[in-house]
């Protein structure tokens, strides 16, 4: 029996929601921005605003449907509403979740990390809160989780549960009060987001309460224009229709160009997301039936084109599939050209979404779950034995592979394990060296280029696991030092280095060497100390070149800066020649600067630029700069890196340390 919440109505004529052309096209554009943003690094820095466009659409459409129910039946039939939402959303989520988990079983390794809790969060519409509780980050790029994109689906699904109750409560108020209530909730959500963004950016971005503004803007529009959206007769033409049409054209162009070209730093977070939500609202307003001027009609025709409509209808499935496929490709083919990978992943996402739509989503939506199951049973009954076995066996295999993947999933990524190993063996830095990890939002160079644009809200650098305090072993002399990770049983790989330039001078002793690095250095800290006893290693996660001069200055101020300063900070963002010039100024004219090149997967598109700047400056200052070419040394041995293709395991750390040692002293054994 349906739960009914009644609204006061005197007449209950047949009301329906008018057809609004072009909204599927807007969905397609929003999905396209998200795909470009995720699949092609740096090509759509603000592309994640596509999610906010989806939120505005959902808030508008769901509120309109609730208003239709109230006007038609005199109540919001909660049971019917929730059942329709379940039929619309859950089948696609179930197929994408289990299908992705089954594929992850074959990829293995880091693709399986935390798979159990991800599947639970995905299937219970709580993914965002599950990951917040585990201190995860949607924006972590070095070791991305398989189902991270489910956070936004969880936000929407939670909205679908609570919002009907709110709409029913607001039914007794006038239009202005309802619009005001929606805007007040949205404004408070922005306020909460800003309050939490500095200290807990992941919580601010993924939280339902802190990312409600788009849903509320859409709801406010539905409240304000109920007479236009819902009714039996065509509405009168809006006298400002031409102005609205111009605003709509401006808005859709601004959404596309802003997502593709605006930076994802500074005021763009969170105001870029808020701005995109307002622009999406303008586009929706232009699509409504009372705006029928020539320019508006032209925009409706563009957004209502067959291609955009076809993609928009399947945009839900495309969004569900694209991220898991990207993650699987990331781990299986880390060095594949990003553009080639993007084409393959986008194509596979569209294929999977179309199959899901035609064989699962649409049939369940029209027949209901029970009707669809009966339909499937009848179809299978007409198959020959081989077809029937295949039809039943394939889904069972998918489930079994998914369950097995959950059972064997590692607790942490191999990259994180490598960093933790280095953490536990890193020597204690000198007094006042301290934690030099920069504040959130300033990890990756002057323009933040090279990061996953979603990473900017969190301030996490892409090449590292989430930022923490730089670990140093206890200084309690009574506590035994932790042991280094066990070496692999196979013979260690001897690094193949390019001929080392004939540098003049070598360290008088290793204690005259100061190494400043990021998590790659941190993962290699014990090997550096082993191969160069007495060397000072100051490494921390999520470091970039931007903090190097401050660290050097502190060592110089307390008299502990070595004669040779090694800087290994090319993992987390681009390095410019101006950055290196500042390093030379910071160490002074009597010291030698050793720059370590970076290495990472093809997605880390900033690393080649950083390496080029390093080599260029070394050629300009051959008497002051040496290059420890970690990139060339490890390029032939990617199997010695963790699953993120960035952090070295024990044998890889040997190569890292040997590369630095030979650059400092070419004659060292």
From TrEMBL:
<feature type="compositionally biased region" description="Polar residues">
    <location>
        <begin position="442"/>
        <end position="451"/>
    </location>
</feature>
<keyword id="KW-0812">Transmembrane</keyword>
<dbReference type="GO" id="GO:0016747">
    <property type="term" value="F:acyltransferase activity, transferring groups other than amino-acyl groups"/>
</dbReference>
<dbReference type="Pfam" id="PF01757">
    <property type="entry name" value="Acyl_transf_3"/>
</dbReference>
<feature type="transmembrane region" description="Helical">
    <location>
        <begin position="210"/>
        <end position="231"/>
    </location>
</feature>
<feature type="transmembrane region" description="Helical">
    <location>
        <begin position="89"/>
        <end position="107"/>
    </location>
</feature>
<keyword id="KW-0808">Transferase</keyword>
<feature type="transmembrane region" description="Helical">
    <location>
        <begin position="46"/>
        <end position="68"/>
    </location>
</feature>
<feature type="region of interest" description="Disordered">
    <location>
        <begin position="418"/>
        <end position="510"/>
    </location>
</feature>
<feature type="transmembrane region" description="Helical">
    <location>
        <begin position="20"/>
        <end position="40"/>
    </location>
</feature>
<dbReference type="GO" id="GO:0009103">
    <property type="term" value="P:lipopolysaccharide biosynthetic process"/>
</dbReference>
<feature type="compositionally biased region" description="Pro residues">
    <location>
        <begin position="427"/>
        <end position="441"/>
    </location>
</feature>
<feature type="transmembrane region" description="Helical">
    <location>
        <begin position="243"/>
        <end position="262"/>
    </location>
</feature>
<keyword id="KW-0472">Membrane</keyword>
<feature type="transmembrane region" description="Helical">
    <location>
        <begin position="339"/>
        <end position="360"/>
    </location>
</feature>
<keyword id="KW-1133">Transmembrane helix</keyword>
<protein>
    <recommendedName>
        <fullName>Acyltransferase 3 domain-containing protein</fullName>
    </recommendedName>
</protein>
<keyword id="KW-1003">Cell membrane</keyword>
<dbReference type="InterPro" id="IPR036514">
    <property type="entry name" value="SGNH_hydro_sf"/>
</dbReference>
<feature type="transmembrane region" description="Helical">
    <location>
        <begin position="268"/>
        <end position="288"/>
    </location>
</feature>
<feature type="transmembrane region" description="Helical">
    <location>
        <begin position="308"/>
        <end position="333"/>
    </location>
</feature>
<dbReference type="GO" id="GO:0005886">
    <property type="term" value="C:plasma membrane"/>
</dbReference>
<feature type="transmembrane region" description="Helical">
    <location>
        <begin position="381"/>
        <end position="408"/>
    </location>
</feature>
<feature type="compositionally biased region" description="Low complexity">
    <location>
        <begin position="486"/>
        <end position="495"/>
    </location>
</feature>
<dbReference type="InterPro" id="IPR050879">
    <property type="entry name" value="Acyltransferase_3"/>
</dbReference>
<feature type="transmembrane region" description="Helical">
    <location>
        <begin position="181"/>
        <end position="198"/>
    </location>
</feature>
<dbReference type="InterPro" id="IPR002656">
    <property type="entry name" value="Acyl_transf_3_dom"/>
</dbReference>
<keyword id="KW-0012">Acyltransferase</keyword>
<feature type="domain" description="Acyltransferase 3">
    <location>
        <begin position="21"/>
        <end position="353"/>
    </location>
</feature>
<feature type="transmembrane region" description="Helical">
    <location>
        <begin position="157"/>
        <end position="174"/>
    </location>
</feature>
